[in-house]
Amino acid sequence: MAKEQAIKLAIAPIGWTNDDLPELGGEIPFEQCVSEMALAGFTGSEVGNKYPRDPKVLNKALGLRGLTICNAWFSSFLTTKPYREVEAEFIKHRDFLYAVGARVIGAAEQGHSIQGLERPIFDDKPTFTDEAWERLCEGLNKLGKKAVAKGMKLTYHHHMGTGVQTAAEIDRLMENTDPALLGFLYDTGHLVFSGEDHLAVLTKWMKRIGHVHLKDMRPAIRRRAIKEKWSFLTAVKEGVFTVPGDGSIDFEPIFQALKKAKYQGWWVVEAEQDPAKANPLEYARKARAYIKEKAKI
């Protein structure tokens, strides 16, 4: 029996249809999205807002195309809501993901987040108080236990416009949570957009990485976002992100470091763009060809 490949390749539906900006790709049906993912050569997907919520229906649609679900975004509100409320939502999310084959959960704290608001992404970024940090770290450890109980891994997704965006904030989160309960979801695009040293973060927290988002970034769009005080969603609509191989990030050192560290799990192409400007199938194929060329996968 052939040995299962340690690194598996997935692509997020956000290039086809955007959860935060429903007008982007609003006309593209679920079936087209997953069919084109398979056609482009991927074997995994994250979950989008058009995906069936009945595990039997979703599993059948994915199985027909040789796809499986690898993860799905979870919005935590540990800094602004009672823990019990967050836990109840997390357990529903966890159980759905388990039923559709995922063993990773990607959480991002949305308490005080401005990522969906029309506010300048750099000027108005939230900063957590010590009390909020304590609530966040304690809460994530508790949610991590709920994930472990189901044989799953909770990973944290740093994100533009949130209280965990910068390298220093990632450090604080990782240093104050239990490695056995919380992993790190490493997202290249968000680190570079934020202005961080993405390779330094990769090296420092390599042992905690449980999931990887591969996203490229266009520096000229970033400069405009800063100068013109754009919101995160405006930057996305204007094309700040793109697929690996189409922006400024050299992914070869990232690929080499992950392989050298014997990373096992998913690499997910996740580059939100306007599908009217960036044909999703074309860009999915471009990303797949780049990964094959540079990572030999």
Strand content: 15-25%
Strand order of the largest sheet: 3-2-1-11-8-7-6-5-4
Low-confidence stretches: none
Specify the overall morphology: globular
Q: Which whole number gives the mean pLDDT? A: 96
Helix fraction? 25-40%
Work out the radius of gyration: 18 Å
The biggest sheet amounts to: 9 strands, parallel
The H/E string reads EHEHEEHEHEHEHHEEHHEHEH
| Overall SS class | alpha/beta
Q: What is the terminal-to-terminal distance?
A: 20 Å
Compute the number of strand runs: 11
Helix run count = 11
Question: Could you explain how this protein is built, in words?
Answer:
With 297 residues, the protein is an alpha/beta fold. The protein is built from eleven helices and eleven strands. The protein has helices at residues 30-39, 55-63, 83-99, 130-148, 167-175, 188-194, 198-204, 219-227, 232-237, 252-260, 280-295; strands at residues 7-11, 44-46, 68-71, 73-76, 104-109, 153-157, 183-187, 209-214, 216-217, 241-242, 265-269. The strands form two sheets. It has a nine-stranded parallel beta sheet with strand order 3-2-1-11-8-7-6-5-4. The protein is globular, with a radius of gyration of 18 Å.
